[in-house]
């Protein structure tokens, strides 16, 4: 190329005058200087910037000697040659320094000599013109650099915005491709991810106008399957590569393979790194022009590639967060559904229990059988749809079917009939319940198994009534509407109720028979005195019947109606006798407390009737496993007890427990399912310290829970360690009560600081117990006992009093106190706290309360009123352990919260393997807090690295061991901005 030539890429930009004249960069400088010289003159100008970059400008006729002379003058500072020396009147050579410490030189060859004054004047003019032209070039280069920097910044902002958007991955990568195209020629562009351990890669995005390859982002390509891939060579090489495809293959010893697409004239690829490990690459290609990418493009693409990796990481972190949120929401929905089902089941059980109690009561309070039937109908109506209800009883000879009670909206009168083939008779013959809709009824009619009587029901449900294992009748309900049907659960419920109705009916009939017998007796005594002997014989029979009934009632009072085992009352009576005998004879005995494992699962899965079957079968197996003289009792639910007397030692009781566990462990069939029951057994051996049977049962129960906690299906013996633990708990509870009375609780303060400079702006007050024997106790050593006994609330109020006294003494900064959900359930909490502040004369604006999300959501209206009352008096609220509960804007914006305290589990994860997840959570919390206009405090800050990450994420305040451990005295406090 002829004309001026610039050696530095940074100074290739032409001035405005250059552009007007159509010259290449710097040509106008030599041309302008040439205008003031004689025709035929030649000029060469050179300059070196302060950074050491060299460039030159020369006229088209200048030879190499003249240009070399100008360049040589940059290295020395001789006087101007030809400016005043007549010996060189046809030449001018000069070098000088410019104001920005750059250096310039020139060499001029003229066809004839010029006067000295003219040469000196021209040289002065040349120096000024060179300085002005170079200043213009530098300004233009800076403007172009700023423009490039702005485009790059906008591109990076665009990539960051795309990473936070809700776009799908394909749309996201397409948008990123568009951003890169705005920075360089990137029409042919692709992104590849790499696993350096497995040596596999995935083409996440691929756009190429010459290569028809269609990338599948989910396809994992093994390195051994593509050994001739230039992309794989780049990933393994780990450094940027630029040049033609042919040059790069020769450099990396990669053979040509047509399967990998056509060769490009210029190929530029840069690796993406994560923690010094290559995890992918970004590649651009130009199929038309060689050397289209330079060092600047390579640096730019490397910089953009890391931001693309960051964007991808943010996208994956957001997807992971959304997935975890969805999983957690689904888990909460399942938990809520189970809880609702449990509530409904409990309500149903309570209604059923009330109904059974009423049925038992009716056998005593109803004066006639007709009233008994009517009241039983009312009880059933509370449990089921029983608008159409009747009771059918077999006659004594079994030939007729009578209807002592019937209420029906269509068949007003139900006459007695011969035992035939109706639905009622079908239930009596089969001896089991029948649930039939109209289709089922029609099917039974068509098969000849029944012959319907009365109006056709849309749905019919009947269950048998038993007396001494024989079916004596039926209780039935029916519906004539398609909108009302019965199900298996209704059948189970009516069957259970019918069993108790059978018992009540038998009792009522027995009572009526007794009344009838008494009436007949009185009539016979009055009218037939001559038949006194016969009447007396009948009376004796009736008395015997009453005594039998009384014996049955006594048996029911001392036995469990389901299993016929002795109940708790009879067991406690036997235990008292056994304790008295043991004191007299010094013969030990033992009590085994047995609880079936996972019995509730059977009830919930296959119903209470199946649970009752399992209880009966379990009682039978227990009785079969013990000795003849041992007593087995059912205490209620799935709990049993065994009294083992006349033993030589503990080994007898342990062998018996093993036998019982083996017997229970055998599989059995319940409600058509095979179940494998198991139990946990606790053993308490008699000791002279026991005063009654209740204490023995209590210790055996404690041992049973020890066995259940050890893994179920085993037994445990109550020992001195368990007793000492119970005594320790009682002693600690007594100490806790004395500590409250003696005011032994103190406040420790942990500073809350600004993360920028570490200056304390407040403190959190923490409860400590100064035990008279054990020294200073932390809350974890007594908080559980305090919550169980209800004493922890009183200890909290002692702490609040200490803090308010501290506030009343003056000072700067605030003090926060923890408030449990129990306090928020008390309606007078806010008024009581404000009264304490008022009595002490303390500034309420320096007090903060720390609450958890559980306290907010326990009773939302009450919590909202309480927070507003406190805030109106200056007491602000901080949300503690934020992020471990619901942590949703859907409820948080409703409450007047001043600050969110980021839970220490997330702060701890900011450094280490869980950093991406923790950073994403903390960033989300910061965004939520920013939306609500509140600030955040990071809890549990222990390392400078955690502090630095919190500051980068926008958290202004922190608390933790890095800034100070809790102490009795507070640090000096500087008020926070805005206080």
UniProtKB/TrEMBL annotation:
Residues 248-263 have a biased composition (Basic and acidic residues). It holds the Pfam family GAF_2. Residues 243-266 are annotated as: Disordered. Residues 729-979 form the EAL domain. SUPFAM superfamilies: EAL domain-like, GAF domain-like, Nucleotide cyclase. Signal peptide: none annotated. PROSITE patterns: EAL, GGDEF. InterPro entries: Biofilm_reg_signaling, EAL_dom, EAL_sf, GAF, GAF-like_dom_sf, GGDEF_dom, Nucleotide_cyclase, Rev_trsase/Diguanyl_cyclase. Residues 587-720 form the GGDEF domain. NCBIfam families: GGDEF (TIGR00254). This is Sensory box-containing diguanylate cyclase/cyclic diguanylate phosphodiesterase. It comes from Lysobacter enzymogenes.
């Amino acid at each position: 190329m002829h004309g001026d030539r610039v050696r530095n890429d940074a100074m290739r930009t032409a001035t405005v005058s250059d552009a007007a004249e159509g010259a290449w960069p710097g040509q106008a400088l030599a041309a302008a200087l040439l205008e003031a010289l004689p025709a035929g003159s030649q000029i060469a100008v050179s300059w070196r910037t302060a950074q050491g970059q060299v460039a030159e400008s020369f006229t088209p006729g200048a030879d190499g000697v003249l240009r070399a002379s100008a360049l040589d003058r940059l290295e020395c500072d001789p006087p101007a040659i030809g400016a005043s020396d007549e010996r060189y009147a046809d030449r001018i050579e000069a070098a000088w320094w410019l104001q920005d410490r750059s250096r310039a030189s020139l060499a001029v060859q003229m066809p004839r000599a010029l006067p000295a004054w003219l040469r000196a004047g021209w040289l002065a003019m040349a120096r000024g013109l060179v300085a002005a032209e170079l200043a213009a070039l530098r300004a233009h280069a800076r403007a172009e650099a700023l423009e490039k920097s702005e485009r790059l910044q906008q591109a990076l902002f665009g990539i960051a915005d795309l990473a936070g958007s809700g776009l799908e991955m394909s749309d996201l990568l397409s948008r990123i491709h568009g951003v890169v195209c705005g920075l360089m020629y990137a029409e042919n562009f692709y992104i590849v991810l790499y696993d350096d351990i497995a040596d596999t890669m995935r083409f996440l995005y691929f756009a190429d106008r010459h290569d028809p390859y269609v990338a599948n982002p989910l396809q994992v390509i093994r390195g051994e399957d593509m050994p001739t891939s230039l992309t794989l060579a780049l990933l393994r090489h780990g450094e940027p590569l630029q040049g033609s495809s042919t040059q790069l293959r020769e450099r990396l010893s990669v053979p040509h393979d047509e399967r990998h697409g056509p060769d490009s004239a210029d190929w530029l690829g840069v690796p993406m790194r994560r923690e010094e490990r290559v995890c992918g690459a970004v590649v651009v290609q130009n199929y038309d022009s060689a050397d289209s990418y330079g060092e600047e493009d390579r640096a730019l693409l490397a910089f953009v590639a890391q931001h693309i990796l960051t964007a991808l990481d943010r996208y994956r972190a957001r997807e992971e967060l959304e997935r975890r949120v969805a999983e957690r929401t689904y888990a909460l929905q399942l938990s809520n559904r189970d809880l609702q089902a449990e509530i409904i089941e409990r309500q149903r059980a309570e209604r059923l229990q009330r109904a059974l109690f009423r049925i038992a009561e009716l056998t005593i309070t109803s004066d006639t059988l007709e009233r008994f039937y009517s009241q039983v109908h009312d009880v059933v109506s509370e449990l089921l749809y029983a608008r159409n209800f009747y009771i059918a009883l077999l006659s004594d000879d079994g030939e007729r079917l009578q209807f002592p009670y019937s209420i029906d909206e269509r068949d007003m009168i139900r006459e007695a009939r011969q035992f035939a083939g109706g639905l009622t008779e079908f239930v009596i013959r089969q001896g089991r319940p029948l649930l039939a809709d109209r289709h089922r009824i029609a099917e039974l009619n068509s098969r000849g198994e029944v012959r319907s009587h009365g109006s056709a029901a849309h749905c019919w449900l009947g269950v048998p009534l038993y007396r001494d294992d024989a079916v004596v009748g039926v209780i039935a309900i029916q519906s004539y509407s398609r909108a009302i049907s019965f199900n298996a659960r209704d059948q189970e419920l009516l069957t259970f109720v019918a069993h108790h109705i059978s018992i009540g009916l038998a009792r009522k009939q027995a009572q009526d028979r007794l009344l009838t017998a008494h009436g007949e007796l009185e009539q016979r005594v009055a009218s037939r005195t001559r038949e006194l002997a016969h009447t007396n014989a009948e009376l004796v029979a009736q008395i015997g019947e009453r005594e039998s009934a009384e014996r049955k009632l006594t048996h029911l009072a001392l036995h469990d109606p389901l299993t016929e085992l002795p109940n708790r009352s009879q067991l406690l009576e036997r235990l008292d006798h056994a304790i008295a005998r043991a004191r007299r004879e010094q013969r030990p005995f033992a009590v085994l407390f047995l609880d079936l494992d996972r019995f509730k699962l059977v009830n919930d899965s296959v119903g209470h009737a199946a649970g009752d079957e399992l209880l009966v079968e379990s009682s039978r197996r227990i009785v079969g496993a013990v000795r003849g003289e041992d007593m087995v009792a059912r205490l209620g639910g799935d709990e049993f007890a065994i009294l083992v007397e006349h033993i030589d030692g503990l080994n007898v009781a342990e062998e018996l427990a093993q036998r019982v566990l083996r017997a229970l462990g055998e599989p059995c069939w319940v409600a058509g399912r095979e179940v494998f029951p198991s139990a946990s057994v606790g053993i308490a051996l008699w000791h002279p310290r026991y005063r009654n049977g209740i204490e023995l049962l209590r210790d055996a129960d404690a041992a049973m829970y020890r066995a259940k906690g050890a893994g179920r299906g085993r037994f445990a013996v109550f020992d001195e360690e368990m007793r000492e633990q119970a005594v320790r708990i009682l002693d600690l509870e007594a100490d806790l009560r004395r500590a409250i009375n003696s005011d032994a609780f103190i406040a420790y303060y942990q500073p809350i600081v600004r993360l920028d400079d570490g200056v304390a702006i407040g403190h959190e007050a923490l409860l400590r117990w100064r035990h008279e024997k054990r020294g200073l106790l932390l809350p974890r050593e007594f908080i559980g006992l305090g919550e169980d006994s209800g004493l922890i609330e009183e200890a909290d109020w002692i702490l609040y009093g200490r803090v308010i006294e501290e506030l009343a003494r003056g000072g700067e900064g605030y003090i926060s106190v923890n408030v449990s959900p129990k306090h928020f359930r008390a309606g007078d909490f806010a008024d009581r706290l404000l009264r304490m502040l008022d009595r002490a004369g303390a500034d309420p604006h320096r007090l903060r309360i720390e609450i958890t999300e559980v306290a907010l959501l326990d009773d939302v209206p009450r919590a909202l009123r309480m927070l507003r009352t406190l805030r109106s008096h200056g007491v602000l609220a901080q949300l503690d352990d934020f992020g471990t509960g619901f942590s949703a804007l859907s409820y948080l914006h409703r409450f007047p919260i001043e600050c969110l305290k980021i839970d220490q589990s997330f702060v701890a994860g900011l450094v280490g393997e869980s950093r991406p997840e923790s950073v994403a959570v903390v960033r989300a919390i910061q965004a939520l807090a920013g939306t609500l206009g509140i600030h955040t405090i990071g809890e549990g800050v222990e390392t400078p690295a955690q502090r630095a990450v919190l500051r980068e994420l926008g958290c202004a305040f922190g608390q933790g061991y890095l800034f100070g451990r809790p102490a009795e005295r507070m640090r000096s406090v500087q008020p926070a901005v805005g206080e």
